[in-house]
Amino acid sequence: MLKGNFPVESFEKIKTPFYYYDMSLLRRTLDRVKQELAKSPDFVLHYAIKANANPVILSTISSAGFGADCVSGGEVRAALSNGFRPDAVVFAGVGKTDEDILFSLKAGIARFNVESVEELEVIDSLAASLNLIAPVSLRVNPDVGAHTNAKITTGLSENKFGINYEQLDSVLAKALKLKNVEYKGLHFHIGSQILDMSDFASLCNRINSLVESLRAKDLPLGDINVGGGLGVDYHHPNHLDVADFEAYFDVFRKHLTLPRGCKVHFELGRSIVAPCGSLISRVLYVKQGTSRKFAILDASMTELVRPAMYKAYHRVENLSSNESEEIYDVVGPVCESSDVFVKEASLDKCHRGDIVAVRSAGAYGEAMASCYNCRPLPKSYFSDMMP
Ligand SMILES: *Cc1c(COP(=O)(O)O)cnc(C)c1O
Questions:
Q1: Radius of gyration (Cα) for the chain, nearest Å?
Q2: I want to staple 187 with a disulfide (CB 3.0 to 4.6 A). Which of 132, 139, 241, 338 is the partner?
Q3: CATH architecture, domain 8-19+276-385
Q4: How many angstroms separate the alpha carbon of residue 320 from the centre of ligand 1?
Q5: Which residues pair with 70 in a beta bridge?
Q6: CA 298 to ligand 1 centroid distance, Å
Q7: What is the residue extent of each domain of the chain?
């Protein structure tokens, strides 16, 4: 059975649980994205930092030459201190604070992705107070429902994100009129973990008709930011370890009909970092119930909340055993019945002390970790710097 490429002997010496990142896989992923972008000189990638803001991951991605998409002042700071140039940093989010806006203005970031007219006015007045011009894009709510978990769709019309179609003309007029903002383009983002390429094709069609209507009204376009959302195969991490970037970018090459020279910005997060990360844990107890067997790990929802929060599936593998598979509910020790990694999973027979890997945990794993139950935040280790 395939178990990925794990240095299990090194793991034996490390206190569990911890995150492990396969850096050669990350670099291979970044190379594949670069190959795709090289085919389309107008395409630009800003990595969505919220997926994983570990400094080693960030510096690897900034060294590869990509920009950063941030959704908080903390993320803007993390980007700047890990090698992203200010002119490659874009900042979205419905609730930007005055402090974060002022900091980002002074830092000279490339773009504020503005989510409401109220925010636009605040950015204008804060920029005026610094005697600066803020570069802004308007985030449009495209009303495209992605076929994914309701908690991670963001593009439906009644949603806290973005500006609705009906309001766009008046907000755009305002952006053109205000003295301390400069209108730079439009921003979209329809959701996350999207594997059905027709969702992205629908987004392209929405963008095309919007661009057409702006042209008809003689309004400026600027550049187009299509957001992120490409999904990964959580079920087969060993077979499909790099997301299908070619199919993804091909959708935009095929369906977007933009004027020549119009830049297209992408903000991928999950598809860049999910496959390279695993949560490594030990089996504390194998508990025999009346009808189920539980593998109780020393890792929990505090290191990886996605199964509890989104009912997300992660493949769990026993790295220590080669005995025939048995069926377990793989659970954590936290006092919540939702602290379950996976139910009725088939794992090589588990024993106390076995090392298990919760796969494809590089995105929205470490970044969402908490200290609930007074648990420490997880440490991280990297394949090219193992102790
Ligand atoms: C979360 C987010 C992304 C990244 O989404 P992924 O599904 O991780 O690719 C991109 N843009 C915005 C505005 C986001 O909020």
A1: 22
A2: 139
A3: Beta Barrel (2.40)
A4: 35
A5: 91
A6: 30
A7: 8-19+276-385, 23-273
Any atom of ligand 1 within 6 Å of the Cβ of 185: no
The reply to whether domains 8-19+276-385 and 23-273 share a CATH topology is: no
Q: With a 6 A CB cut-off, is 68 part of the ligand 1 pocket?
A: no
pLDDT tens sequence across 49-76: 999 999 999 999 999 999 999 999 999 9
C-beta neighbour count of 377 within 10 angstroms: 11
Domain 23-273 -> CATH class: alpha beta
User: 371 exposed, middle or buried (CB, 10 Å; 0-12, 13-18, 19+)?
Assistant: exposed
Euclidean distance between the first and final Cα of the chain, in Å? 27
Question: 351 C-alpha to center of ligand 1: Å?
Answer: 39
- pTM confidence score: 0.95
Q: How far is the CA of 129 from the centre of ligand 1 (A)?
A: 31
Ligand 1 site-directed mutation target among 33, 49, 50, most atoms within 8 Å of CB: 50
How many C-beta atoms surround the C-beta of residue 211 within 10 A? 19
Q: What is the pLDDT of residues 247-270, one digit of tens each?
A: 999 999 999 999 888 999 999 999
What's the rounded Cα separation, in Å, for the pair 116 and 249? 29
CA dist 256 and 350 (Å) reads: 50
> Does residue 69 line the site of ligand 1, with CB under 6 A?
yes
Determine contact, residues 30/64, Cβ cutoff 8 Å: yes
The pick from 49, 69, 91, 113 for probing ligand 1's pocket by mutation, whose C-beta has the most ligand atoms within 8 angstroms, reads 69
Residue nearest to atom 3 of ligand 1 (CA): 228
